Amino acid sequence: MNDDELRQQALDACHGLAAYGLGSGIGGHISLRVPGKELYWTNALDRTFEEMRLEDIVLLDFDGNPVKSDRPISPGIGFHQGIYKLRPDVGAIVHTHGYWITAQSAYGRPLRNLHNLATYFHNATAIAPDDEIESIAPAMKQGDNAIIIPWHGAITMGPSMVEAAALHVTFDYAARLDVQVPADVPLMPEDHARTIQGLLAKANYLKLTWDLMKRKAARGHNGEVVVPQVAA
Ligand SMILES: [Zn+2]
Questions:
Q1: What residue numbers bound the domain in which 77 lies?
Q2: pLDDT, tens only, 92-133
Q3: If you measure from the C-alpha of residue 24 to the centroid of ligand 1, how many angstroms do you get, rounded to a whole number?
């Protein structure tokens, strides 16, 4: 993708996340790496995801400095370049304070395997030791697709925004189950989880979910519609 396409996809991600109730407060940031360069596109801090317009998507270098922009950026942006430096396979990152994601993060542990979709994150989730920018990216191992920041929120990542954004709404769904299902409910057996992981890989679920996010966004989350801060 060229720069215009990357910037548009970053905007699509903001609106798609908003359509899932994940971007109706200030805070949260998404990014898309510019292939082959130490640059990435991200969103300005002073708009919600649902309000974002193309001019609110700005370019940063790997020191976190804006390139030709004076828009405010989250002071917590640094883990994006931290992840990009450590993980050449990662092309896009999503971080929100979604209500259920944040509730689950307070446990400070990975999601329980309570549903097929939770298996996306099984053995692929890091727990950040604290809120410090410097400690978040090094908490990952190669292949992880999520980082939980205790009492704060979560990060999802993937080779492109298709995976990073679709994993984020999937994480939100699994986190809602995790928080609400009682502690004594049996977990999915390990061999069953591995079978499900194989089936999901064949199902093209993340691409289909990304397409759904864009359809939902196109129906109303165009920068003017305000959705509840906490999804019903
Ligand atoms: Zn945050």
A1: 3-218
A2: 999 999 999 999 999 999 999 999 999 999 999 999 999 888
A3: 13
Report the C-alpha gap between 16 and 210 in whole angstroms: 8
Distance 82 CA to ligand 1 centre (A): 15
Give the DSSP letter of residue 186: P
**How many domains does one find in the chain?**
1
Measured in angstroms, how far is the CA atom of residue 136 from the centroid of ligand 1? 11
pTM (two decimals): 0.94
CA of 195 to the centre of ligand 1 (A): 33
CA of 102 to the centre of ligand 1 (A): 10
Whichever domain contains 118, its CATH number is 3.40.225.10
- Measured in angstroms, how far is the CA atom of residue 68 from the centroid of ligand 1? 24
> How do residues 87-98 score in pLDDT, each as one tens digit?
999 999 999 999
What is Dmax (Cα atoms) for the chain?
53
Q: Compute, in angstroms, the gap from residue 71 CA to the centroid of ligand 1.
A: 18
Q: Identify whether 80 is part of a domain.
A: yes
d(CA 62, CA 150): 25
Ligand 1 centroid–CA 154 distance in Å is 8
| Sequence letter at residue 121 | F
Which among 1, 46, 11, 15 has a CA at the least distance from the CA of 31? 11
Give the separation between CA 90 and CA 15, rounded to whole angstroms: 21
